[in-house]
Amino acid sequence: MTVNWFKYSAPTTFYGLAGKMIPWFAVSAALLFCAGLYVGFFVAPVDAQQGEFYRIIFIHVPTSILSMFLYLIMAGYAALGLVLNTRLSSMMATAIAPTGALFAFISLWTGALWGKPMWGAWWMWDARLTSELILLFLYLGFIALHASIDDPRRADRAAALLAIVGSVNVPIIYFSVQWWNTLHQGSTIKFSGTTMHVAMQQALLIMLLACWAYAIAVVLARVRSIILERERNTAWIAELPEVKR
Amino acid sequence: MFDLLVLVIRRDLVLAMRRRADVLTTLIFFVMVVSLFPLGVGPEMDMLRKMAAGVLWVAALLSSMLSLGRLFSADYLDGTLEQMMLAPQSLSMLVLGKMTAHWMVSGLPLVMLAPVLGLQFDMPVRELGVLVAGLLLGTPILSMLGAIGAALTLGLRGGGVLLSLLVLPLCIPVLIFGTGAVEAVSSGLPIASHLSLLGALLVLSLVFTPWVTAQALRISME
Prior knowledge:
By secondary structure, chain A is mainly α. Chain A has helices at residues 11-43, 57-84, 87-119, 127-148, 152-180, 198-230, 235-239, 241-244. Chain A has one domain.
């Protein structure tokens, strides 16, 4: 039996697959959020230095991680779309951008809320905060460029080029900002052992999974809308039960 | 290949000289932005001396954004750009020529003007030297990164503002190392690392940006 590896790279087939996947990811995101927040707020012990304030970590850290990963994934999809000229990859890149920007924004917002009790100021020109802010700017640039070009194919390719240039620049920006100023606490989770309580770790991990599940569900839902919008004149869209109705 | 480069540079310079007002507007903008800062933050010399490098660099960044819109737009509107893309010569080389001409017209005058404006902020001579060295290495990078944005936003409505939105975040490392060098010399630290990093960025952009800009032009023109 031969397997067609590219079956789901066509919008026609992917549309249905995404529709079937969304409920699974959405439900697991909701369950994981509830579990993660419960463990984070009620099970995990109080921190020795930071008291109850540290609990914002359970939102702050997963959203920061996701905002960075999503940029790379977005740039990867954009590059695929540019090189192989596949429609679905570019649609995925477009669908990921708003979610990534949202996570970057939440991460900055919760960072500010955390900074007030810890550093005594809402905002510090600290390396990580600043590079997260620049990441948000890069997302906004991608979205703005895509939105201001009317022809979707040209918009895809121009935005893809911008995303690739941005992802080459991200490490340069990150290190330049880091040399410029550092106040943020270092990572607590390292590959060689950790200084964290087990319940804290578990809560963080659950919240991270919840954010992933949420991001996947939302991106799939958005990509379905994009497919519907761009392929609205095709025969297979007209045959869909939800369109026929 | 170098004949082509020289030809493009000479052509763009002649065109710029025919429209001197455009070049001068950018320069006047630079001088004005720099002069507004003391009015905004007060005339204490100690504070002005400290922020001089930052102010000059940010002003240079903004005024280089201002002139980027013109980099390809005139050639795009009268069809020259299309002919250039059809030409058998490499488009990257042509783009490199246009970038160089753009820098000579809008970057180099800023570099030469910067020490005079630095004196207004009472910068010591040693710092002025480092500032100029940094600007000499940094402003070509701004022109080259800006060219990518200019090519991507070619012919779009509201292109100018969009261009700044795309390019400014990418220019942040240049700003950091440029002002970092001046800060290092004022606190008696070695400056070689900052200037070497700027030089590295310059070489890196020299290698990659002409090709990326050429790709962006192809996307915008199809």
